Amino acid sequence: MLRHEYSERFANPADVAHCRHLLRDGSRTFFAASLILPAGLRAPTAGLYAFCRVADDAIDQGSDGAGALSQMRARLERVLRGQPDDDAVDRVFADTVKRGAIPPAIPQALLEGFAWDVERRRYDTLAQLECYALRVAGTVGLMMALLMGVRERATLAAACDLGVAMQLTNIARDVGEDARHGRLYLPLDWLREEGIDPDLWLARPEHLPALARVIERLLGVAEALYSAAEPGISALPASCRPGMRAARLLYAEIGREVARRRFDSISQRAVVSWQRKARILADAMVGRAPKPPARARVPAPEAALLIDCAAECVAARPAPTLESTREQLRWPRIEDRITWLIDLFERLERRERARGGAVN
Fold this sequence. Notes:
The protein contains 17 helices and no strands. It is mostly helical. Helix 3 runs antiparallel to helix 7.
């Protein structure tokens, strides 16, 4: 097999730095997990996240969502042709797509999910909601797996499950914030089963015991998906497992924080402290893996199509390998890695407090 090693210098360093800044400020949880990815994966990961973030913000925050979506689709097509716009994010993402042999259908499905946001779709059933989560987050899991050299369908399916679980966790955490923007992602049939009229509630969002039961139910689904994803994490290259297990544990902790707040996502937003994130990352680095499920989950039909596309498009190409020896030289002892992370988090928290920002 031809050996290929990712390089930190695969893109312009200034472009990569810009993408990492977007990652750090846009998703503290994902940024924390990225810190213990192999060095050669951090830049492509930042490029992937930055493109998703820029696309989401352009579509979500502008006055013309449909127009922004059309522009992002055109930008993506140029990225996929290897002719990105003169933009740091597009340049890094174009190299990321090339290095990971990412099939066009996967980032195109991501933008399809954003199109559903533009349409202000609601989801009658959990199955419909999972179709949305597959597009906006399962695709990201798939792209991350491809960057790690994954080619096996079962592991790709687990990456999808992990992405969907993270998105369901985000939905459970952000119920109030979404409602204040006129959005509702909870399964409508679950709300009606609890006696909640979706339109009336959305007109006047408030925390209700019945709503708490719906949020609890959704987090239960997310927890099952985290468990289903664990065998896939264990099948990743050894140097990649701590980072992805950290992402799995950190997002699951968001759900537990929602539970500690009695599933009230309306009057407050669940935040996991840097100290707790540091402890979770330490667990991930020493390999304290949750017990995997007894039986593997069968992917939903739409997920299976994307998984097959990913597996078939890259089958003829050798999987990139990640050099672990440099990581071992850089981190001679696990104790040094944990001490470094805790120190970093303390400095980040002090800086956030000095700036008056929320530690998220």
